[in-house]
Amino acid sequence: MRLISVAVAVLVAAAASSDADVRRIRLCADPANLPFSARDERQPGFEVEVARALAQALGAELTIHWVPTAREIVALRQLYDGGCDVFMGLPATAAFRADKPRLQFSAPYYVMRQVVVSPTVGGVGRLDELRGKLVGVQAMTLGDQLAYERGFTRKVYRNADELFIALTRSEVDSVVIESPLGGWFVTHQPGFRLVEVVDPARDVPIGAAMRKVDLALKDELDGALRKLETSTLPAILARYGIGPAPQPAASPALSTELRLARSTFLTQCSQCHGVDAKGTPVAANLQAFKGSEDDFLRIVRNGRPGTAMTPWKGLIDDDDIRAIARYLKHLADTARP
Ligand code: HEC
Fold first, then answer.
1. For atom 8 of ligand 1, which residue has the closest CA?
2. Closest Cα to atom 34, ligand 1: which residue?
């Protein structure tokens, strides 16, 4: 018996060493934070599934370093110290990036929104209908802030679990919460529905973080995201109840061309120019762009030397850049006064 196990051990070692040139991407993820990530093969969470799809697209193997993420500083230290290469689920906003000079961020792979979750029967169809109702929120979140600013009657809970228990017990009429948590709840709990809050100022594009010294990794991940964005990515997100945003009732549905352009804009451009394209402290308001479509194409193809506006020639087809120009024009034309 002894000999056999030694032989097996030798075989395993041999396999491991012949395997040594397989590229590995190490992901940091929380072992117990569904729907984002979980140490559970059958239900690993959408961030683990997206990371796995990205690694596969790059011909790499994904290994996972499990770390609790309740405290951002502790979790990100793993990334700084090389415990892992990639950290999913971080806001791709200028404010979040400002104090993390050693990190770089992938293009966003989804946009986190606020949603209203309420019972299917007698529930809420629009945010305004929350007036006069008791609205459950999680302390210190964008949903809490939203309900507060609108003057809704709030009941504040410490975490999402308590919040949803309160909703199922009818202690509150509705809940305002981030889309992944709301989506996850309604996919599991019959009798509840979800309505997205249309408020671009509160939309948060979410991407992955890497160390800046891993120069090539960002371009690789962005390239892989572009490959996955038409089918694999939406399919993973949909399994966890995170769907594409329905159109606001007031504005007419977008054509297929403009919908695709919106998706390219959100994943490639919004982290600098803002989800609503109205600009951020780091880049211009594109709704206010006064040049022609040809001017737009030229600037986007060539970039603006000396600024963060890098050339997109070869990365996005000319036709798709023109479609982005038309989408932005559409945004500006339909903007509410
Ligand atoms: C990493 C940040 C970043 C990304 C990503 C980015 N831009 Fe820019 N963009 C800038 C900066 C910075 C400028 C130049 C300074 C300015 O005008 O604010 C700029 C300028 C522009 C301009 C000229 C604006 C004007 O009024 O002259 C256009 C058009 C533009 N970007 C389009 C896009 C499009 C389309 C995308 C996505 C394909 C994109 N940008 C992605 C940062 C970015």
1. 309
2. 269
C-alpha–C-alpha distance, residues 186 and 194, integer Å: 7
Q: Which residues have CB under 8 Å from 154's CB, separation 6+?
A: 134, 135, 136, 137, 144, 147, 148
Tokens encoding 3: 């000999």
User: For residue 57, how far is its CA from the centre of ligand 1 (angstroms)?
Assistant: 28
Q: Whose CA is nearest to atom 26 of ligand 1?
A: 289
Find the length of the chain. Answer: 337
Structure tokens at 254: 């977008």
Classify each residue of 137-161 as buried b or exposed e, where b means 16 or more C-beta atoms within 10 Å of its C-beta.
bbeebbbbebbeeeebebebbeebe
Which pLDDT tens digit goes with each residue over 31-77?
A: 999 999 999 999 999 999 999 999 999 999 999 999 988 788 888 99
**Residue holding tokens 């609205």?**
135
pLDDT in tens, 135-154: 999 998 889 999 999 999 99
Question: For residue 22, what are its two tokens?
Answer: 């397989």
List ligand 1's pocket residues with C-beta within 6 A.
268-269, 271-273, 282-284, 286, 289, 296, 299-300, 304, 307-309, 312, 316, 324
